[in-house]
């Protein structure tokens, strides 16, 4: 495959980014959590800037289709793909918990938060493992509204229960792969 699959480095749970942890996380501010539990990225190995780059949509969107196919194969190959992504999600979740726990002056707030977020994590973990490929969003953030100047596809569950603690701040710039491929087919019949 000509792409990598990586888990999101930030936890999916906005409750892990409270204002007491960092003053920039004021209520209503944009926090770094992912767009859903299990949010991952499929990153092209080819040096392509963004989906607006003609190389991204060349040959009827072959590169984008390959990126999606890579994730589909990864997810459907059995438990190893699913559990691998769940482990990555848990690693990000635990890493953020460790950062929160390091704020000793806020131990009471952290100790009050931990049981709720941990219980929710366990519930979502079980649901996540039963997802089918059609439960996922495959999308990009086109230029100029990008986080990094390299072609990558966001893949995350489009299931309300797996998005309830996640960011919706980026939904406005999240363009579905199907829409891009449809537009490309209309432009190049």
Quick check: average pLDDT? 91
Number of separate helices: 5
Poorly predicted ranges (pLDDT <50, ≥5 residues)?
A: none
Q: What separation lies between the terminal Cα atoms?
A: 27 Å
Q: How does the helix and strand content classify structurally? A: alpha+beta
Please outline the major beta sheet.
5 strands, antiparallel
Strand order of the largest sheet: 1-2-4-3-5
- Based on Cα principal axes, name the global outline: globular
Instruction: Give the DSSP E fraction (strand runs of 2 or more residues).
Output: 5-15%
Oligomer: single chain
Q: What is the N-to-C succession of helices and strands?
A: EEHHHEEHEH
E-strand count: 5
Helix content class: 40-55%
Cα-based radius of gyration, to the nearest Å? 18 Å
What topology emerges from the helices and strands here?
Elements: E1 3-7, E2 40-44, H1 54-76, H2 79-101, H3 107-128, E3 136-140, E4 152-157, H4 160-163, E5 175-176, H5 177-187
Antiparallel strand pairs: 1-2, 2-4, 3-4, 3-5
Helix pairs in contact: 1-5, 2-3
Short description, anyone?
The protein is of the alpha+beta class and 189 residues long. The protein is built from 5 helices and 5 strands; from the N terminus they run ββαααββαβα.
Can you give a write-up of this model?
By secondary structure, the chain is of the alpha+beta class. Helices cover 44% and strands 12% of the residues. It has five helices and five strands. Helix 1 packs across helix 5 and helix 2 runs antiparallel to helix 3. The two termini are 27 Å apart. The model has no long low-confidence stretch (mean pLDDT 91).
């Amino acid at each position: 495959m000509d792409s990598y699959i990586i888990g999101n480095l930030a936890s999916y749970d906005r409750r892990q980014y409270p204002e007491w942890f960092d003053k920039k996380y004021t209520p209503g501010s944009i926090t770094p959590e992912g767009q859903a539990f299990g949010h991952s990225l499929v990153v092209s190995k080819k040096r392509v800037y963004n989906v607006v780059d003609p190389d991204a949509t060349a040959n009827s969107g072959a590169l984008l289709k390959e990126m999606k196919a890579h994730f589909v194969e990864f997810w459907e190959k059995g438990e190893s793909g699913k559990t691998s992504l769940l482990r990555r999600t848990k690693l990000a979740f635990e890493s953020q918990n460790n950062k929160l726990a390091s704020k000793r002056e806020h131990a009471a707030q952290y100790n009050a938060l931990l049981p709720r977020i941990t219980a929710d994590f366990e519930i979502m973990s079980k649901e996540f493992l039963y997802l089918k490929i059609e439960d996922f969003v495959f999308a990009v953030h086109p230029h100029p509204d990008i986080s990094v100047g390299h072609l990558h596809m966001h893949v995350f569950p489009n299931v309300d229960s797996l998005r309830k603690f996640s960011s919706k701040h980026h939904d406005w710039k999240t363009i579905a792969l199907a829409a891009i491929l449809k537009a490309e087919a209309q432009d190049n019949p």
